[in-house]
Records
---
Amino acid sequence: MAAPRWTHDNIAAFGGDPNSITVGGQSVGGALTLLLMANQQSRPLFRRALLQGCVQPAFPADICSVDRAIETRQRFEKLLGEDVRTAPWQRIVEVGASMRPPGVVMPPFEVVIGGPDIPVSPLDADLSDFDVLTGWTADEACMWGKPPVNTLGFEEGTRSLAGRHAVAGHPAFVYRFDWQGPPPWFATHCIELPFLFGNNAVWADSP
């Protein structure tokens, strides 16, 4: 929250326009951008959003509900066995990792949806304040599963979000990134990032 607020308050001093700020992210960064768009405190701070490889139908409010957050906190405190404010960070990371079910990548701690700041899921929120550019790679999910995962997990959600935005009369642009790396990666998750930043060198030794 501090970064968009500081940028909004100070960008004019660097020749920027506080009414034309873009916030963007890829994967979980894109999901966090969606959350900033739905957050009542941060949404006035920017006007454009770049959402890359992140919009999925599996973003329901019930997985980040207030009740679930309370349950997770109680489990965490019991396993930690000490005050989280003074516990070593290594211990906090260790306990958090132990709470993940087998095969689950995401951490057990989630953004709470249903409170005053984010009352509804970003996919159900009114995002009409924003111009949106969103998209996915052709083989987004190839490192995790078969092609239907790509269609259901990325393409469908992206098209749905952009479609609703456009039908409501708000600027929405969609891309699909097709450039392929060597097998088995093809046009996989994250592969568009060096092209976005124009810096291929940092990715030269990537698989």
Note: The CA atoms of residues 110 and 132 lie 24 Å apart.
---
Amino acid sequence: MIRLAIIGTGGMANSHAGSFKAIKGCDVAACCDIAPGRAKAFAEKHGIPKVYADTAEMLKQERLDGVSIAAIDKAHAPTALLAIKYGLCVMCEKPLADNLRDARRMAEAARARKLITAVNFSYRNSPATQMAAKIVASGRLGRIMHVEGSYLQSWLVGKAWGDWHKSEAWLWRLSTRHGSAGVLGDIGVHLYDFASFIVGDIAALQCELKTFNKGRKRIGPYVFDANDSMAAIVRFNNGALGTLHASRWATGHANTVALRVYGDKGGLDINLDRPAPETLRICVGQDVDTNIWWPVKCPPVPTMYQRFVDAIKSGKQGQTSFEGGARVQAYLDASLKSSTNGGKLIGIKN
């Protein structure tokens, strides 16, 4: 039996708890949050026997195989490093850290202890995403030339997810003082992983981040200063050129993630317009001459949670890791640096 604890009991932690408890041979033994009332309610909801308000105390008291971190971004690095000190495997929400230096520290610490790590890049749970990566890797599209990726949300325009004007629950997405890295850190991180997982690592990028006037400027002491839109031009290691953009102002798109990959032998188009069914289409062979696209069947795949548990059981690192999370963090840091320097091209150091 793999015994896990969940650290942080906010919204995303519910996905962690439900997913891990559904896995055979996995036991969620404890949870921890600096807000004891929230942690207690979370434990009662998910049938978790032990509740803590201090991570160090929990790690001392419980016999665990690993932890899953669903706390706020700035808590990721210190929490993960503490768990690694105790010799525990760690799964962490995205982004891995607040900055590249901390992300690399986390990766190096886990590597030194030979521990299993994972980052919850949730769009890898998609069968279409996994199939798209296999198609590109197989060479079926030929040499990759051009890439277009987008992550579009509309909650700053509409109220499909509630009214951000009236609830402090949105502050972590809107205010840097509240820990927000804006659209870049919230959904841009997914877009960078989505694109690089399918196409390959990014060699250099230039980016512009934009914070728009929203009318209302703050909730209490928290100013709405986090970026709302991002647009990046990226150069992949394989020579492909791409554009990646994300926004919370995309009217009519509740949560749409899409990628189009074009090679010299064919192309693919993947659309994860949730909650609508995801789609993957391909244009190859003779269809290139007639511009005909065909749907691709995508068999079920393990979730990131299942992959983490399987990796702990086998002792073999899974598909995501802190090393991979640090690479994506490098893209985020480069995006910020580029935007603050007038869209300057920034090389990525691996």
Note: The first strand starts at residue 2 and ends at 7.
